[in-house]
Structures are given as C-alpha cells and as structure tokens.
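Project outcomes to date are best conveyed with an example. Our students and postdoctoral researchers have been running inverse folding experiments weekly, and each run begins with a structure described purely in tokens. The record below, which covers 84 residues, was selected by the lab manager from last quarter's runs and is presented without edits.
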C-alpha cells in the first residue's frame, strides 16, 4: 500500500465515520426535525453512485467509504421519512 492509498483510506474513514454520531442520535431520539429530507435524499443517491464508481474502478477507499456512508445516510433518511 502506497502513501496515496493510505491517504485515501484515512480520508474515507474521516468522512464516513463523521456520519456515525448523527445516525446514533437519530436512532436514539427519533427526532429528524432538523434534517433536510431533500439533502439526505440527494446525498444518499450520490454515495450510492460513488459506491458504484468505486466498484467499477476497483478503488478500495471509495468502495469502503461509500458503502458505509450509504448505509448510515440511508438509515438517517429512513428515520426522516418514518418519523415525519
């Protein structure tokens, strides 16, 4: 693994795990009043598309980051629509 791939993995971890506190808070409190459904819909779609790109280009940091981020963002989005 070279330094560029290491940099990508570190960046992927930072951006991916930044969603974890929001997902935990949303699941615990079931309060999504401060979350934009439009933003999360677009964002979730974007991360799914990035995941597809990562798979097609066999880019591990992009696959890793977007697989987890998609799941976390989709969870938040699910709660947004469920507890409207």
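After processing, the design step wrote out the following sequence:
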């Amino acid at each position: 693994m070279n330094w560029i791939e290491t940099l990508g993995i570190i960046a992927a971890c930072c951006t991916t795990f930044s969603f974890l506190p929001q997902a935990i808070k949303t699941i615990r409190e079931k309060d999504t009043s401060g979350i934009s459904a439009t933003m999360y819909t677009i964002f979730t779609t974007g991360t799914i598309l990035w995941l597809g790109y990562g798979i097609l280009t066999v880019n591990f940091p992009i696959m890793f980051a977007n697989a987890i981020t998609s799941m976390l963002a989709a969870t938040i989005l699910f709660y947004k629509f469920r507890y409207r």
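The first helix runs from residue 3 to 17. Residues 3-82 form a domain with the Monooxygenase fold (CATH 1.20.1280.290). The training component of this project remains on track.
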